[in-house]
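Budget justification aside, the reviewers requested a transparent look at the raw inputs and outputs of the sequence design task funded under Objective 1. We therefore reproduce one unedited record. The lines immediately below are the structure tokens for a 308-residue chain.
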């Protein structure tokens, strides 16, 4: 136990984990933090214990970009088992009702999918990590307590039907942050005049990262066994996290001003206010917000470390 209370290393970067099913995102985060012996770590939006797939974990200074990654779009593949509704909306929950399943064709599903596209209001499920008076909703739900939840605006960009059997279907869904796939699947099952719940949920992309960059906890443990140097090579550079943001190089004088929390001025301007800042040696400095006249206010400035 004593080792975990030590300060840990000032290691900075992002590791994309392919989260296994049956474990909480926080459990995976703590494992990664321990393997890297990192002083600081944070994830970029949790996945349900049942869910697998892309879970970017930020270490050290990279935690300063985690909130921006959290706001990014996500893509999932999900299997819905029809005819059975559970209290949690997935197979981890208890069955609350069973319904007859009408005979379905591919066209039945393709006809109703368009009504679930675009911007919409979604009420978060009781089985979620959202807090009510300091308590996570799922803890209240387990006690049989239901509280009113505010509807949230989410956007479903795309839904592709991958598979349809007599009693289940598989979808590929691209959506905005804050979208509950369990709720979406349940709503679709109701539109098909039955009920349904999630039996498989896999996040295939999040915040510009996909499964190609993801490694399993087991793989990470193997790298750790080969030594710290090999392990650290698995980290992705923080500046690649927001690759769609414009990058701006600034001179040494501006770097000093930025580090003192002062605004700086550059000649070029972009449509997008959020920018990545680099010094003349291409060292990543952090994030800024640009006004229309080229003034940049520092938003997240990194502490540069010699190692990592």
């Amino acid at each position: 136990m004593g080792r975990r209370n030590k300060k840990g290393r000032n290691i900075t970067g992002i590791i994309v984990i392919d989260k296994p099913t049956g474990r909480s995102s926080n459990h995976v985060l703590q494992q990664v933090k321990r393997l890297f012996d990192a002083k600081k770590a944070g994830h970029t939006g949790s996945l349900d214990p049942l869910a697998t797939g892309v879970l970017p974990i930020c270490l050290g200074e990279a935690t300063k970009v985690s909130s921006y990654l959290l706001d990014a779009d996500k893509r999932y593949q999900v299997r819905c088992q029809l005819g059975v509704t559970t209290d949690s909306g997935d197979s981890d929950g208890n069955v609350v009702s069973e319904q007859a399943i009408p005979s379905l064709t591919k066209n039945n599903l393709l006809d109703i999918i368009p009504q679930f596209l675009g911007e919409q209001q979604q009420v978060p499920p009781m089985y979620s990590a959202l807090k009510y008076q300091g308590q996570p909703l799922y803890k209240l739900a387990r006690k049989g307590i239901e509280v009113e939840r505010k509807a949230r605006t989410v956007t479903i960009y795309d839904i592709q039907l991958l598979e349809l059997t007599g009693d289940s279907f598989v979808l590929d869904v691209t959506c905005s942050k804050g979208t509950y796939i369990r709720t979406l699947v349940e709503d679709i099952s109701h539109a098909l005049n039955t009920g349904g719940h999630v039996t498989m949920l896999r996040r295939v992309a999040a915040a510009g990262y996909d499964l190609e960059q993801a490694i399993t906890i087991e793989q990470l443990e193997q790298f750790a066994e080969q030594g710290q140097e090999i392990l650290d090579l698995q980290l992705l550079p923080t500046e690649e996290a927001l690759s769609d943001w414009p990058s701006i190089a600034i001179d040494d004088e501006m770097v000093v001003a930025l580090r003192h929390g002062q605004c700086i001025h550059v000649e070029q301007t972009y449509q997008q206010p959020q920018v990545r800042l680099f010094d003349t040696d291409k060292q990543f400095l952090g994030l800024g917000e640009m006004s229309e006249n080229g003034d940049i206010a520092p938003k997240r400035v990194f502490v540069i470390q010699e190692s990592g």
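Residues 25-36 form the longest helix (12 residues). The mean pLDDT is 90. Computational costs for records of this kind are itemized in the attached budget.
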